[in-house]
């Protein structure tokens, strides 16, 4: 009986293989059509009632399992704003089917590489795939220098593609982006950088010495407030930006875990790694101090990103927020690449 069943199974598989081979062109055409008919997620453009957030990158300079380094997409009023574009951000956005050619503006918090590694890729891809107007990139003083550098680095690419594709030659300006630098008057801590159709965005100085200026951003729409911290230590200078935020998307450093790991690094002869760990603690946001500040500021939902050390296992994720709830009574979420929230 078993032998007959095996023979029948083999016969069916053989028949299926022959049928697939005979109809291979039809199957290939259907696969091509399915791929071509994939549609982008337009909910970030069509939803004008809510603030929508996509965490497109939770990583840092640390090599980890994160899909991308720092990257947060926020939509409001049918417009999409991208905050930081670390390595892997463009692939992460594509994975989430975001129509990146329709970004309203990109905001950079500061010029550590993990916050703008993929910016040139984003600009270049937009030009190649049909963006109609140059992408505005707004950030601290130094934004023009960075975009000028990208323009120089991509000049050969632009020339080759324009020669091959006349429609690209007619739209050369899109290949390089538009830098918009944010400046602050003496004693000024925050400045409005966007105000249109009910959406406001303020740039605010944060504490990330020796990086100066380092910025965070506050977006408001229909009574909702979102704070994107960029890289910062926990500091009183961030209180106004955090105060009563519906969502604080905040960099996070599990210092309690790192301090526990440093002696082990030294025992294993990992002196370089131990030194790096010791030097990064002071200018990132310690989870315990962050929990206390979020509670004082009245933050409703604290979303942790730029995660160090990266919680790439169940055990580490459990340890990562250990004891934070003792200091903060709101909702705490450890972000993951691809996570979407609607406010």
Distance between the termini: 61 Å
User: What is the name of the CATH class?
Assistant: Alpha Beta
* Count of domains: 1
Shape: globular
Order of helices and strands: HHHEEEHEHEHHHEEEEEHEHHHEHEE
- Using only C-alpha atoms, the radius of gyration works out to 24 Å
Describe the structure using short key phrases.
343 residues, alpha/beta, Metallo-beta-lactamase, Chain A, 7-stranded mixed beta sheet, 14 strands, 36% helix, globular
Can you tell me about this structure?
- This protein is of the alpha/beta class.
- It has a single domain (43-342), classed as Metallo-beta-lactamase, Chain A.
- Helices cover 36% and strands 24% of the residues.
- It is built from 13 helices and 14 strands.
- The protein has helices spanning 2-22, 24-36, 43-46, 89-95, 119-128, 143-153, 155-164, 166-169, 239-242, 255-267, 271-280, 287-297, 314-320; strands spanning 52-57, 71-76, 79-83, 103-107, 136-140, 178-182, 190-196, 199-205, 215-221, 224-228, 247-253, 301-308, 331-334, 339-342.
- It has a 7-stranded mixed sheet with strand order 6-5-4-3-2-1-14. The chain has a 7-stranded mixed sheet with strand order 7-8-9-10-11-12-13, covered by helices on one side.
- Strand 2 and strand 3 form a beta hairpin.
- Helix 10 runs antiparallel to helix 11.
- It is globular.
- The mean pLDDT is 92.
Summarize it:
By secondary structure, the protein is of the alpha/beta class. The protein has 13 helices and 14 strands. It has helices spanning 2-22, 24-36, 43-46, 89-95, 119-128, 143-153, 155-164, 166-169, 239-242, 255-267, 271-280, 287-297, 314-320; strands at 52-57, 71-76, 79-83, 103-107, 136-140, 178-182, 190-196, 199-205, 215-221, 224-228, 247-253, 301-308, 331-334, 339-342.
């Amino acid at each position: 009986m078993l032998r007959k069943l095996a023979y029948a199974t083999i016969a069916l598989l053989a028949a299926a293989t022959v049928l697939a081979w005979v109809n291979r062109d039809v199957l290939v055409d259907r696969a091509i059509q399915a791929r071509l008919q994939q549609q982008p997620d337009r909910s970030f453009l069509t939803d004008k009632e809510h603030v929508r957030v996509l965490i497109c990158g939770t990583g840092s300079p640390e090599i980890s399992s994160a899909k991308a380094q720092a990257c947060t997409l926020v939509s409001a009023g049918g417009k999409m704003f991208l905050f930081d574009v670390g390595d892997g951000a463009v692939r992460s956005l594509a994975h989430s089917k975001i129509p990146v050619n329709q970004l309203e503006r990109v905001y950079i918090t500061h010029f550590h590489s993990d916050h703008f590694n993929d910016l040139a890729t984003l600009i270049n891809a937009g030009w190649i795939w049909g963006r109609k107007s140059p992408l505005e990139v707004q950030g601290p003083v130094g934004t023009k220098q960075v975009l000028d550098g990208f323009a120089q680095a991509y000049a050969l690419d632009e020339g080759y593609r324009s020669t091959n594709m006349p429609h690209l030659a007619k739209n050369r300006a899109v290949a390089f982006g538009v830098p918009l630098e944010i400046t602050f008057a003496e004693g000024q801590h925050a400045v409005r950088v966007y105000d249109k159709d009910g959406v406001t965005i303020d740039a605010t100085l944060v504490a990330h010495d020796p990086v100066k200026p380092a910025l965070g951003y506050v977006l408001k729409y229909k009574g909702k407030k979102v704070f994107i911290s960029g890289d910062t230590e926990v500091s009183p200078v961030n209180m106004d930006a955090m105060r009563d935020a519906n969502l604080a998307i905040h960099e996070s450093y599990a210092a309690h875990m790192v301090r526990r790991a440093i002696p082990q690094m030294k025992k294993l002869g990992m002196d370089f790694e131990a030194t790096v760990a010791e030097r990064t603690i002071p200018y990132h946001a310690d989870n315990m101090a962050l929990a206390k500040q979020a509670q004082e500021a009245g933050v409703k939902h604290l979303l942790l990103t730029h995660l160090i050390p990266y919680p790439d296992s169940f055990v580490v994720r459990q340890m990562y927020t250990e004891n934070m709830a003792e200091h903060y009574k709101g909702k705490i979420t450890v972000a993951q690449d691809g996570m979407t929230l609607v406010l």
